[in-house]
Specification:
Blueprint: E1 2-6, H1 21-31, E2 35-39, H2 48-62, E3 69-71, H3 83-100, E4 104-107, H4 123-142, E5 147-151, H5 160-170, E6 175-180, H6 191-198, E7 202-207, E8 209-213, E9 225-226, E10 232-236, H7 245-254, E11 260-263, H8 271-285
Parallel strand pairs: 1-2, 1-11, 2-3, 3-4, 4-5, 5-6, 6-7, 7-11
Antiparallel strand pairs: 8-10, 9-10
Length: about 290
């Protein structure tokens, strides 16, 4: 497996003290990563396709691959609830992924049914609609040789069995899972069990760690947020938290997956230090 890092990991320092796309790419190379996953990088005044071309050139010049491109989308509520408009928006982003040379793209399913929506409001009631959106996008992306995926995050589509059901409803070989090891904890699910469920469907992997505190105690303070079941989580340097990273990677490797794994760091520590320590841990583990 190759080790990359998500640009999202550096979001807390991006735009500060001259830390721009040029410095980001140079930093990632100097740290020793093999790839840079692109997510949430503002293009400023630069035309978006020109910006994607710039990212591609900068990474090529440093010998970095772009294994994945991640965007938000919502097939229930996005584009004012117009699913065809939302599909068109995601297809536009497939074109951007192509322009930057990414071979995989993750986009969200939904963050849930709105509370004011009349019942029924369960996952099973909307999975067909979500599958339709993903199927239309992945058929388009396949023509450009870009795989698409859904990530286990956002609470509503976070459990492994929900993600697996959605993937099988889409029923297309170009579509699968972006498996995020740490995110299962947001749904209070055992990551090792969940990784075993989704391992056959992997298109890309996020390695993330969390400090976990029981919801039976008081709020630990700054940086912590609540899981769906009320436990407290805070982003951690990989290997410092409670996510069973090593065991999950063993499950993933045993499944036959040999592609990229990307660090996604959300801790309070300096992101350059946090990602560098995470890289060292993963190099030792693998």
């Amino acid at each position: 497996m190759k080790i990359g890092v998500s640009s999202y990991s550096y979001s807390s320092i991006f735009g500060k003290d001259g830390f721009d796309i040029y410095k980001l790419v140079k930093t990632v190379k100097d740290q020793g990563f093999e790839g840079l996953e692109i997510a949430h990088i503002p293009n400023g005044d630069v035309e978006i396709f020109e910006f994607c071309g710039l990212i591609k050139k900068l990474c090529n010049d440093e010998g970095l691959e772009i294994p994945s491109y991640c965007i938000g989308s919502d097939f229930l509520n996005g584009s004012g609830g117009d699913i065809e408009a939302e599909i068109a928006m995601v297809k536009h982003n497939v074109d951007l992924a192509e322009a930057m040379g990414a071979k995989s793209m993750r986009h969200d399913a939904t963050y849930g049914v709105k509370k004011e929506t009349p019942p029924p409001r369960g996952f099973d009631d909307v999975v067909e609609k979500l599958a339709y959106g993903y199927r239309e996008v992945t058929k388009y992306a396949e023509k450009k040789e870009i795989a698409t995926s859904v990530e286990n995050h956002g609470f509503f589509v976070q459990d492994s069995l929900r993600v697996e059901k959605l993937i099988n409803k889409v029923g297309h070989k170009n579509f699968g899972a972006l498996l995020d090891i740490g995110n299962f904890l947001c749904a209070d699910e055992n990551p090792v069990y969940a990784a075993g469920i989704l391992a056959p469907y992997i298109k890309h992997v996020h390695v993330k760690d969390f400090h976990v505190k029981s919801g039976m105690g008081p709020n630990p303070g700054e940086g912590f947020f609540k899981s769906r079941g009320g436990n407290y989580l805070r982003g951690a340097i990989i290997g410092h938290g409670n996510a069973p990273v090593d065991q999950c990677l063993g499950v993933i490797r045993s499944s036959g997956y040999d592609g990229y794994i990307s660090i996604e760091f959300e801790g309070l520590e300096d992101p350059i230090k946090g990602t560098s320590l995470g890289l060292k841990y993963l190099q030792k583990t693998l």
